[in-house]
Amino acid sequence: MTITRPTSRELIAAALRNHGDALRDIRIDDLADEDDVVLRRVGYRLVQSGDRSAFEAGRRLLGRASNGRLFPPPHKRWWTGPGKRTADLEAMLNPYSAELVWRDGRPAWEIGGRLWLHGVDRDWRWYPLLHVDPNAEWAKTDICWIRLGRRMQHAV
To answer: Confidence class of residue 18 from pLDDT cuts 50, 70 and 90?
Structure first.
């Protein structure tokens, strides 16, 4: 028995069929681009729709478009840098992962990984993600800026 993964176009068609109410304003021209562009476009609209099942479908579309390495959208608010004081901080998340999750009835970005502080493995924790620097070397959480190590590879 062979298991076949649905194609990108099949995922887009299923999203349009199952979550058409969240995609009312999408035009035919918006679906004529390359598959990963359309997957991202439809995925982010579903994620922001406010519906939990649409969020899950949008998350799957974004995961397919990014090949399992999902990053926050390229919005200027996300891409800032740490201050001078935090550059001396010895804490590091290695390995880390940025995840799109459903919290308190809406989508949110969280970053997590193995926290290393002064060379000692402290714990595995998830932090709400506020900003990422342009080179994705630092991430700002609600606590402080944390240096990022190696990115985890997720199975698709």
So the answer is: very high
Amino acid at residue number 8: S
Kindly state the DSSP code that residue 155 receives in the 8-state scheme.
P
Question: Cα separation of 46 and 62, whole Å?
Answer: 10
Helix extents (H) in 48-102: 52-66
Cβ pair 98, 70 in contact under 8 A: yes
Rounded distance between C-alpha atoms, residue 24 and residue 107, angstroms: 20
Mean pLDDT (the chain) is 79
Are 70 and 96 a contacting pair, CB within 8 Å? Answer: no
Sign, CA dihedral 121-123-126-129, equals negative
Query: φ, ψ for residue 35 (rounded to 5)?
Result: -60, -45
Cα–Cα distance, 93 to 116 (Å, whole number): 6
Q: Are 78 and 132 in contact (CB under 8 A)?
A: yes
